[in-house]
Write a structure and sequence with these properties.
Helices cover about 30% and strands about 25% of the residues. By secondary structure, it is an alpha+beta fold.
Length: about 140
């Protein structure tokens, strides 16, 4: 039988601010099952609820959120086995996305799927990133 663990962030988390969004929309930032960690799609949302206007900064904030979740689980980007990025405008974002991604993922490259989409949860959002990582246990 598999053991499933759901991550609950500290209420004073510097990256997320609190669990308010997760509680409001009833989901977990990450779920661990059978040696894999499924991290919910992360957006460029700062702890104070604001969204950067600059595309690179928005992408960077999304990666910082993933990094924070990984850190809470004792993992880092070398443990990521799959990355899926959702782009409102792939053509204008891909170069910036790759530039930011290369600051976080430098080796042990995961499988990566790039998807163009019509919209995200808020109109000012341009990208969402979800990852799957392998646990070290």
């Amino acid at each position: 039988m598999s053991q499933i663990e759901r991550l609950r962030l500290p209420e004073d988390d510097a990256t997320f601010g609190s669990n308010r969004i997760f509680d409001l929309f009833q989901y977990s930032p990450a779920v661990t099952a059978n040696g894999l960690v499924f991290i919910a799609g992360q957006i460029g949302l700062r702890a104070d609820g604001s969204i950067p206007e600059d595309p690179k900064e928005q992408i960077d904030v999304a990666f910082k959120r993933i990094e924070a979740v990984l850190r809470h689980l004792g993992l880092d980007f070398t443990d990521v086995v799959e990355l899926v990025s959702y782009h409102v405008d792939v053509g204008s974002q891909l170069a910036a996305f790759r530039e930011v991604k290369e600051r976080y993922i430098r080796s042990d490259f995961p499988a990566w799927t790039i998807l163009g989409i019509a919209a995200l949860a808020r109109p000012e959002l341009i990208v969402e990133i979800k990852v799957v990582a392998a646990t070290r246990k």
